[in-house]
Every structure is written in structure tokens, then in C-alpha cells.
């Protein structure tokens, strides 16, 4: 492949997708193979890098036997998994059991099709044909990414259900609830980007960041997306669907050999995909960072944009590894509370503020007036919430003077053990004392020894 720098074409106008769809079929195949190879090589490197970085954080050596500096460790792991015995449990729904790993892995690769590796307006030459550094683009490219990411969850749910075992089923249900919770916050964080860029096309969103990256203009959306992407990929500290400590491996408990490897592959490919989306929407995509782009005119031409994209991508993958080596796993109630009570309300309020600012700017208000109006609205909301908290505390204080009647607690309500509801208390647990013959008796019962006498 030969790169040709094209400086005279200019940058792609927002929403102009006319440069796509003109490649011959063999060039489309070459670009598709490149995208697949790029993702696979990134995954192989990320597995080794994760083990190396976590070992460095824990003062260990890490893999150092397979290849130079242990760089072929992930390849050796893949070969080992393919050569292991392939077991299919007797009670499994065989067709769904075999289909689930494929459903989990294939959609993870599909999102990379609309990720731009370079500017669409500055084409490169491959075997004499001018083409863009992007497989294709769509007017609703970001929605296409969300759709493909949503399909992958079916693989995990079907894997948990088809195994015919309790623990995989619990892991699959956890994953389903987790994806629903965090995809809402992720979608709302994307909406702020759509408002500023005026497009859902990935190439147009990158072109709209030529002056300033959206991580600076939309910091709250970026932070919400960062948290949501960790939850979306089932990575620590949000790896509740697997949760090895209490689910014995989660949804993939009954899988082995190449099918288990496909689930692990899907997890790492999803890491690459969500990191690529973060780079595209918030970190300027293929654009060179400020000091480089300011002093070097050719930084965003030719094959150089691919280098900047890869560097940003690897920094986000390092962030995934850093979280895994730093934070403990959350409880499931904490995890769901973070998604429904923190991320979604914050992203909704932030979207309203962003929409208000855009509306005011469209009406030709200057920046000081926008800050005044938006700041006044935020102060008013905070003041109202403060007053509401005062009244709520006053009502709570009045209610504390009256003893709330305790309701009778049935520990086996409905035929299953249940925790106490608000206002109910657990009955005291009887203490047990050993008999003289070694058996246990309930303290306070008719056989209790009191004052040296048997009562």
C-alpha cells in the first residue's frame, strides 16, 4: 500500500457522505479485512498489555515466556483454548447453546465499520485507487453503533438460559439488566454530541471538532460515557454478570474450549469498540493533539491520522486496565443505583443545559448572557432542592416523635425466605448452648440449665 498525501481536497463538509460508496468491491474487501485485522491485533496486544500492567501494579513479573517479552502470550492462550476438550452439557438447549457465542462475538466486530481512521476529505491511494480511511459511513452512524452493541447482549442472555444451569441464568439476567440501565445513560450522553455537531455521522462529528474537542465542550457527557462504557463491557468494577466470587464464572460457567474463547474475545473487542467510539465522539478522532497540529501542517494528512487514533485508543484501553487493577467490584444494588439514580438524571439535566445553550446561541445571544441565564437556572434548581430538603427534614423530625407501629414479619412470606420490609424487625435469634451429651438446646427453653438446675 502506498500513501499519497492529498492537501488540496479540503475537509469534508458536515453531513456530506458523497465520498463513500464509490470503492470497487475488491477494495471494500481489503478495507474490511484491514478493520478485522486491526481489531484482532489490538485485542491480542491488549490481553498481553493487561496482564503486564496488572502485574506491574501488583509487583509481579507477568507473562515472559512466550515470544519476546511475553508478547505471544495471548496467541498461546488462544491455541490452548482451541485444543482443549469441547464439552456440551446434557441439559443444554444445543442449538441455542452453540449459537450464543457467535451472537456475542460477531456484533462486536460490526461497529468498527463506521469508525473513521482518517479524514474523509483527504483521501489515500491503495493499489492506485483513491479511497477514504474508513470502511463506510451512515447519516445515523452512531445509532448503528448502539444497535450493534445492543445485539451482543442477546448472546450473553441466551448463553445463560441455554446452559440449563442456575448460575449461568443468574449471570445472564444480571447482564440484561446491566445493559438496559447503562445504555440509557450512554444514549443521552450521545445526544449532547449530536446537538453540537448537528449530525449523527461519525466522520462529520470528527470534522466538527476541528477547533475544540468535545471532551472540553461537553465534559459531563464524556464522564457519563466513560462510566457507561465500562458498565457496557462488563469490565471491573462492573463485572457483575461474571462475578466469579458468587456466581462461579457467571453466564459462561458451562462453556469450554473455543466457545469460551469467543466470549472472552467478544469482551475485549467490545473494549476496543467503545474506546474507538469515545475517541471519535469526544477526543477528536484521528486528529493530532494540539501541540502537534499547531506546528505541523501535515500531521492530519496521509497515514499519520491512523497513528494519532491508535495512541488515543491505547490510552483508553490502559484506563480499562487501570480500573481493573485499582477498584474492587461493586455490590449489585450499588451498581444499579449508580446507573438509575446518578448517571441517568445527571445526563438528562446536562442535556437540557446543552440544549438551552444551543438554543440561546442560535438566537444570537452572546456568551456572557448564556452563562448568566444557564447559571441562574442552575442556582434556582439548587435553591428549590435545598428548600425541599428543609421541609422534608422538618416532616421527618415531626414524625420521629411518634413511635411507628411495627408490623409483623413473616420470614417465609409467599413460601420463600424474604428480608424484612420497612417498619418490620427481625425476631431475635435464639442463642444455643451445648448439652452435656454434645447436642444443642435453645437458650431459655425448658431444657436450659439455670442456676445449676434444669428448668
UniProtKB/TrEMBL annotation:
GO biological process, one term: aerobic respiration
Positions of the UniProt region annotated as Disordered: 397-455
InterPro entries on file: NADH_UbQ_OxRdtase_su1/FPO (IPR001694), NADH_UbQ_OxRdtase_su1_CS (IPR018086)
Record's bilayer topology term: Multi-pass membrane protein
Statement: the UniProt record of this protein carries the keyword Translocase: yes
GO cellular component terms, semicolon-separated: plasma membrane
Sorted UniProt keywords: Cell membrane, Membrane, NAD, Oxidoreductase, Quinone, Translocase, Transmembrane, Transmembrane helix, Ubiquinone
Transmembrane intervals: 25-49, 96-118, 138-161, 182-206, 212-231, 268-286, 306-326, 338-358, 370-391
GO molecular function: NADH dehydrogenase activity; oxidoreductase activity, acting on NAD(P)H, quinone or similar compound as acceptor; quinone binding
EC number: 7.1.1.-
One matching Pfam family: NADHdh
Enzyme class, spelled out: translocase
Subcellular location: Cell membrane; Membrane
Annotated Basic and acidic residues bias: 397-410
Ranges of biased composition (kind: Pro residues): 417-429
Catalytic activity: a quinone + NADH + 5 H(+)(in) = a quinol + NAD(+) + 4 H(+)(out)
Sequence similarity: Belongs to the complex I subunit 1 family.
Function, as annotated: NDH-1 shuttles electrons from NADH, via FMN and iron-sulfur (Fe-S) centers, to quinones in the respiratory chain. The immediate electron acceptor for the enzyme in this species is believed to be ubiquinone. Couples the redox reaction to proton translocation (for every two electrons transferred, four hydrogen ions are translocated across the cytoplasmic membrane), and thus conserves the redox energy in a proton gradient. This subunit may bind ubiquinone.
HAMAP family, per the entry: NDH1_NuoH
NCBIfam families, alphabetized: PRK06076.1-2, PRK06076.1-4
Subunit structure: NDH-1 is composed of 14 different subunits. Subunits NuoA, H, J, K, L, M, N constitute the membrane sector of the complex.
Protein name: NADH-quinone oxidoreductase subunit H
Amino acid at each position: 500500500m502506498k500513501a499519497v498525501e492529498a492537501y488540496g481536497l479540503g475537509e469534508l463538509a458536515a453531513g456530506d457522505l458523497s465520498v463513500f460508496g464509490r470503492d470497487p468491491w475488491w477494495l471494500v474487501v481489503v478495507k474490511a479485512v484491514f478493520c478485522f485485522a486491526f481489531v484482532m491485533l489490538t485485542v491480542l496486544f491488549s490481553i498481553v498489555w493487561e496482564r503486564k500492567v496488572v502485574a506491574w501494579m501488583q509487583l509481579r513479573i507477568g507473562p515472559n515466556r512466550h515470544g519476546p517479552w511475553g508478547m505471544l502470550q495471548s496467541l498461546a492462550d488462544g491455541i490452548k483454548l482451541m485444543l482443549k476438550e469441547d464439552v456440551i452439557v446434557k441439559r443444554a438447549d444445543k442449538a441455542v447453546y452453540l449459537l450464543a457465542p457467535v451472537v456475542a462475538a460477531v456484533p462486536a466486530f460490526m461497529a468498527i465499520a463506521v469508525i473513521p481512521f482518517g479524514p474523509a476529505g483527504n483521501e489515500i491511494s491503495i493499489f492506485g485507487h483513491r479511497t477514504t480511511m474508513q470502511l463506510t459511513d451512515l447519516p445515523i452512524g452512531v445509532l448503528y453503533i448502539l444497535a450493534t452493541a445492543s445485539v451482543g447482549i442477546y448472546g450473553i442472555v441466551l448463553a445463560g438460559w441455554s446452559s440449563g444451569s442456575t448460575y449461568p441464568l443468574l449471570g445472564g439476567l444480571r447482564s440484561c439488566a446491566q445493559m438496559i440501565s447503562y445504555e440509557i445513560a450512554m444514549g443521552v450522553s450521545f445526544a449532547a454530541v449530536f446537538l453540537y455537531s448537528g449530525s449523527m455521522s461519525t466522520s462529520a462529528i470528527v470534522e466538527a471538532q476541528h477547533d475544540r474537542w468535545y471532551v472540553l465542550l461537553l465534559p459531563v457527557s464524556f464522564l457519563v460515557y466513560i462510566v457507561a462504557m465500562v458498565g457496557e463491557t462488563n469490565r471491573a468494577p462492573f463485572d457483575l454478570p461474571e462475578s466469579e466470587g458468587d456466581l462461579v464464572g457467571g453466564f459462561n460457567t458451562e462453556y469450554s474450549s473455543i466457545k469460551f474463547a469467543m466470549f472472552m474475545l467478544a469482551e475485549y473487542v467490545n473494549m476496543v469498540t467503545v474506546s474507538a467510539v469515545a475517541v471519535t465522539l469526544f477526543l477528536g478522532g484521528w486528529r493530532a493533539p494540539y501541540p502537534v497540529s499547531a506546528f505541523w501542517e501535515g500531521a492530519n494528512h496521509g497515514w499519520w491520522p491512523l497513528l494519532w487514533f491508535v495512541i488515543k485508543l491505547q490510552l483508553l484501553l490502559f484506563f480499562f486496565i487501570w480500573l481493573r487493577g485499582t477498584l474492587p467490584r461493586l455490590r449489585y444494588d450499588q451498581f444499579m443505583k449508580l446507573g438509575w439514580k446518578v448517571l441517568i438524571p445527571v445526563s438528562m439535566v446536562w442535556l437540557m443545559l446543552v440544549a438551552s445553550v444551543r438554543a440561546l446561541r442560535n438566537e444570537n445571544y452572546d456568551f456572557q448572557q448564556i452563562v448568566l441565564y444557564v447559571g441562574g437556572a442552575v442556582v434556582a434548581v439548587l435553591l428549590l432542592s435545598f428548600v425541599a430538603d428543609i421541609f422534608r427534614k422538618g416532616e421527618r423530625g415531626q414524625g420521629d416523635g411518634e413511635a411507628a407501629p411495627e408490623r409483623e414479619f413473616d420470614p417465609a412470606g409467599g413460601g420463600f425466605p424474604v428480608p424484612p420490609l420497612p417498619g418490620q424487625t427481625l425476631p431475635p435469634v435464639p442463642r444455643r448452648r451445648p448439652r452435656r451429651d454434645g447436642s444443642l438446646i435453645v437458650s431459655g427453653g425448658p431444657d436450659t440449665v439455670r442456676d445449676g438446675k434444669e428448668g
